[in-house]
Write a structure and sequence with these properties.
There is one protein chain. The protein is an all-beta fold. The protein is 0% helix and 52% strand. The strands form two sheets. It has an eight-stranded parallel β-barrel with strand order 17-18-20-22-24-23-21-19. A three-stranded parallel sheet has the order 7-10-13, with no helix packed on it. 41% of the residues are buried.
Length: 284
Amino acid sequence: MVYENMSTDQERALYGVRDAEVRNCRFEGAADGESALKEASGIRVSGCFFDLRYPLWHVTGGEVRNCVMTENCRAALWYDRNIVIEGCRLDGIKALRECENVTVRNTEVSSPELFWKCRSVTVQDVSVVQSEYPFFELAGAEIDGLSLKGKYSFQYASDVEISNSVLDTKDAFWHARNVTVRDSTVKGEYLGWYSEKLVLIRCRIVGTQPFCYCRNLVLEDCTMEGCDLSFERSSVDAVVRGRIDSVKNPECGRIVADEIGSVIMEPAYADAGRTVIQAGRVEV
């Protein structure tokens, strides 16, 4: 079945369609109908414009290509399985939630509460220009070429691989578990607090008070800029090129850098004998 060049504002306009192509359609209008393609399966949606709420809920098997979802298209993709989103623009709040086996490519997103509780996710060359709490409780993801501007990213995320990305975020990876970041820039305040098995390899790390209360934190061949009061109460194995502004009360492990501005070890909170600190120059 092919639906082409139609315009509708009716509720559940194409509810439950099967093995259908939806081309160059517009879902907008005064009737403000929601759930246009709810419960659909095996659909191929291309060149469409969405300005109504909840258009793609409980979709099983689908492709969404070269489509626009406006800021009025809130909660666009929820509870979907086995879907591909490519070449789209997603502007509505809560764009994806509780989806499984999702691939998003070459897409621009402005959406608070993005990718909440999604599983088995692939992200390639995606620009998130604005978001708060993106990737909350994400489980199982491969991310490459992500440009992210947001706040409070990847909280409670688990089993995630990120590479070749730029994350500009107020904080990131709080309570995250089994997350590896490679060849990326991670910029923000209070990065990685309360994380477990967070690994950063060849990354540029920017921002105050990173990596506190971590367990099994690993930094390999990274740089740190403006990173003061780092590693407080953390178990850490860090090899850093260049300078760390300051290290405060690490719990245990190893910290190696070319230069450390200062090391703060307060006897009430840290046992200096449990952490090896090596630097070309250390100011205590």
